[in-house]
Inverse folding.
C-alpha cells in the first residue's frame, strides 16, 4: 500500500511540476481580475457606476486605478516579472474590496448568506495570492 501511495504521489508531483499547468493555475487565479479589468475598461460608464455604488470617489480616478491594478498585477503574475509584487497587490486589493463590497454583518437574510459566502471566498483568494508571493520569493522559478 505504501508503495502505491508513493507512486501516486510521484505521478502527481510530476504533473504539478509541468510549467503549462502552473501557468494555467495562475491564469485561473487571475481570471476574475482580468475579466473585471477588461469589462471596466470596455464599459467605463459601468465602471464609474460601480465606483459610485460602493461610495468610492472620485469615481473616475478610482476606476482607472482599479483597471490598472487588476490588469497590471495580473500581467506581473502571469509573466513572472515581479510576480510576488503582483500577487501581494491583488491580495491587498481583494482584502480591501471584500470589506467594501461584502459587508455581510450589516445585512439581513437571505442577502447575508450570499455576502458571507462571497466574503470568505475572497479571503481564500487573499490566501492564495499570499502563497503565490511566498512561493515566488522562496523558489524563484
Amino acid at each position: 500500500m505504501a508503495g502505491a501511495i508513493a507512486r501516486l504521489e510521484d505521478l502527481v508531483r510530476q504533473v504539478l511540476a509541468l510549467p503549462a499547468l502552473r501557468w494555467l493555475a495562475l491564469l485561473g487565479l487571475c481570471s476574475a481580475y482580468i475579466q473585471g479589468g477588461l469589462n471596466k475598461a470596455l464599459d467605463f460608464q459601468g465602471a464609474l457606476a460601480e465606483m459610485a455604488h460602493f461610495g468610492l470617489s472620485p469615481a473616475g480616478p478610482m476606476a482607472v486605478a482599479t483597471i490598472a491594478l487588476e490588469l497590471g498585477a495580473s500581467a506581473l503574475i502571469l509573466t513572472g516579472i515581479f510576480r510576488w509584487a503582483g500577487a501581494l497587490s491583488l491580495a491587498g486589493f481583494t482584502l480591501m474590496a471584500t470589506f467594501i463590497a461584502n459587508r455581510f454583518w450589516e445585512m439581513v437574510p437571505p442577502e447575508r448568506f450570499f455576502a458571507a459566502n462571497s466574503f470568505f471566498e475572497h479571503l481564500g483568494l487573499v490566501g492564495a495570492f499570499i502563497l503565490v508571493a511566498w512561493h515566488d520569493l522562496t523558489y524563484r522559478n
In short: The radius of gyration is 18 Å.
